[in-house]
Amino acid sequence: MVGLPGAAFLMGSNAFYPEEGPVHERHVEAFEIDVHPVTNEQFARFVEETGYLTTAERPLDPRQFPDLTADELTPGALAFTPSSGPVDLGDWRQWWRWQPGASWRHPQGPGSGIEEKADHPVVQVSYADATAYATWVGKSLPTEEELEYAARGGLEGATYAWGEDARPGGRLMANTWQGRFPYDNRGADGWVGTSPVGSFPANGYGLVDLIGNVWEWTTSDYTLRHEERVRHCCAPTAPRSRYADPQGRRVLKGGSHLCAPEYCLRYRPAARSPQSEDTSTTHIGFRCVRRPGRTERSTGT
Fold first, then answer.
1. Contact 151, 11 (CB under 8 A)
2. What is the per-residue pLDDT for 13?
3. Is the N end or the C end of the chain the one with fewer CB atoms within 10 Å?
4. pLDDT computed for residue 299 by the predictor
5. Contacts within 8 Å (CB) and 24+ apart, 57-62
6. CA separation for the pair 140, 127 (Å, rounded)
7. Helix axes 40-50, 127-136, angle to 10 degrees
8. Pick from 205, 191, 200, 241: which is nearest to 221 by CA?
9. What are the angstrom distances between the C-alpha of 230 and each of 47, 237, 246?
10. Picking from 74-83, 233-242, 280-289, which range would have the lowest pLDDT averaged per residue?
11. Could you tell me where the beta strands, DSSP code E, fall in the chain?
């Protein structure tokens, strides 16, 4: 882990997607953060020692999905599948499919595996799965503010985690989609899909893969816009944000190997995406934080 001091920083962006604005000042307390996302090897140890069963490995609850047949309630998850050519980028169903049998062990479903990917970020993990792992190692999941602060690497207000140039000196700085989305991916430095953690340069704090590779879960509730946090001296509780997301989703940060400029230019610290807690996909992972003064149960290392 890397220890980061508490500080105020400028959060958000007014230059790209509306949900990233407005730019405003936020303050984070000192915390420690994992250098890289949790890997398949680390998650496998957790499962081996606890017997944990992930969301994707459990049948769907028929009470939540009353319109599905018994066959459709079998365990599984969402798997990215490239299209055969150009498609309507407004319809995500063109490249995502529900894959029975997909899980963290078999990200693309039966026949796929992670045998050669011990040092890749674990994927096909829901919010509950990430929380369970974090609790096991005596840590927590980060907030949106903590991840954005960490991703900026000390560069105040920069567009990218490394500055203003998307490819300084022509160098690819993160694992993102290379080619035409969603049918032509030439690979990021040879990697199509996830890459081993640390394959791309660290940021100013020595942290890797906070941009690209996999989106990362946070504990923050998604809002349709940022809202500056104003202290009310006499209010017992903060009022509900006018930008609150009606679907009650969590914030993902960092972008992934599926981010392409023409569809998802979200491989930037300010970028954010909503996700329901029960979702598991081939491009979502997580990392953990530890905050001074907090005592949590720890059975792992």
1. no
2. 97
3. C
4. 40
5. 57/103
6. 12
7. 80
8. 241
9. 42, 12, 22
10. 233-242
11. 2-4, 7-11, 24-28, 31-33, 76-80, 96-100, 179-180, 184-185, 215-221, 250-253, 272-275, 284-285, 289-290
As a dihedral over the C-alpha atoms of residue 57, residue 62, residue 67, residue 70, rounded to 10 degrees, the angle is: 60
Q: Tell me how far apart the alpha carbons of residues 248 and 274 are, in angstroms, rounded to a whole number.
A: 9
* Chain centroid offset of residue 9 CA: 21
Angle (nearest 5°) at CA 137 between 136 and 139: 105
Retrieve residue 95's tokens: 């490249």
Q: How far is CA 224 from CA 203, 220, 274, 300, in A?
A: 28, 12, 9, 37
Comparing C-alpha atoms, which of 226, 267, 270, 217 is closest to residue 245?
226
Tokens of 153: 């690497």
Confidence of residue 62 (pLDDT cuts 50, 70, 90): confident
Q: What is the mean pLDDT of the chain?
A: 92
CA distances from 49 to 109, 136, 241 (A): 24, 10, 41
Instruction: Annotate 44-54 with b (16+ C-beta within 10 A) or e (fewer).
Output: ebbbeeeeeeb
β-pairing verdict for 7-11 and 24-28: antiparallel
**Cβ atoms of residues 197 and 121 within 8 Å:** yes
- Cα 248 to chain center, whole Å? 17
First to last CA, the chain: 12
Retrieve residue 137's tokens: 């190692």
User: What's the token pair of residue 300?
Assistant: 């792992």
Give 109-134 pLDDT, tens digit per residue. Answer: 999 999 999 999 999 999 999 999 99
Radius of gyration of the chain (CA): 19
Contact 239, 194 (CB under 8 A): no
178-202: pLDDT as tens digits: 999 999 999 999 999 999 999 999 9
Helix ranges (DSSP H) in the chain: 40-50, 127-136, 144-152
The residue with tokens 């369970």 is: 132
